[in-house]
Amino acid sequence: xxxxxxxxxxxxxxxxxxxxxxxxxxxxxxxxxxxxxxxxxxxxxxxxxxxxxxxxxxxxxxxxxxxxxxxxxxxxxxxxxxxxxxxxxxxxxxxxxxxxxxxxxxxxxxxxxxxxxxxxxxxxxxxxxxxxxxxxxxxxxxxxxxxxxxxxxxxxxxxxxxxxxxxxxxxxxxxxxxxxxxxxxxxxxxxxxxxxxxxxxxxxxxxxxxxxxxxxxxxxxxxxxxxxxxxxxxxxxxxxxxxxxxxxxxxxxxxxxxxxxxxxxxxxxxxxxxxxxxxxxxxxxxxxxxxxxxxxxxxxxxxxxxxxxxxxxxxxxxxxxxxxxxxxxxxxxxxxxxxxxxxxxxxxxxxxx
Length: 353
Description:
Blueprint: H1 13-19, H2 34-37, H3 40-47, H4 51-65, H5 77-90, H6 94-101, H7 105-120, H8 123-126, H9 133-147, E1 152-162, E2 182-189, E3 195-203, H10 208-213, H11 216-222, E4 230-232, E5 243-244, H12 253-265, H13 267-279, H14 282-285, H15 291-310, H16 341-348
Parallel strand pairs: 1-4, 4-5
Antiparallel strand pairs: 1-2, 2-3
């Protein structure tokens, strides 16, 4: 029997292809030094944050993302960070971000994952609710100065971040009421548009109120961590002792006055979404990554947003595209939970205006 003859049969075509396979030539692409190539204006247009913020972030995560060796032209820490920022800034394909820094699509994918996780780990340092009486009092005064709404320490809302179909038996849980796959992200904002809390683990089908009642913030509120402080929300949340919402159908001047005050007071959370998604358009255009990496990217963008705010980098550069508007999908009014702060405020505060 001629054993070599079997390799030419149709059934063994895969074996022939395997034996004839030749590995692609290892290519070293030229990598541009973007920190020196661009001035501050052009740099912010391309990476959405300033060089000062980039260097500050790099100082925090350098040990986590640096390569163990310089052999084989290893990508430097600064280039890894810039690649991830470019990906956040464009919402483009990984291969495009890789070409921008001179690496392959596979390498770009690994870099985006590692950098996003490293930045997301900075969350306890840069995303914080008030912890001391002094911080609580200062926050309440800041909110009061907006529209004279008392006792407020935060404005809460949710926004949907579009994702690709995650696959698996639970994929349909991520399909929201608008029909696309998303993660429903809850944040709490303060008057200077910084994010004080973020929850980015719930599928798009989950209601805002459900996410809130399963969050650590809810348990801290009902356990009295912030005293009699309240959080302002829209009508997708239920009124309670610590959460207040507007009247959907105000019946008199006092309720009209209350609505005007609370709507202006909760405006920072809506504005924070606008700034966040203009700074990092990937949150508007959608992510095509694994679910775990997607969650890390969302938290990382929130951390970067806060660091930029700390450095007075409040207004991201203008975009050449029109982003989708932030959608408020869960708008139906929730029933009050027994004794609620809205009723108390109406009787003890707004009636005297």
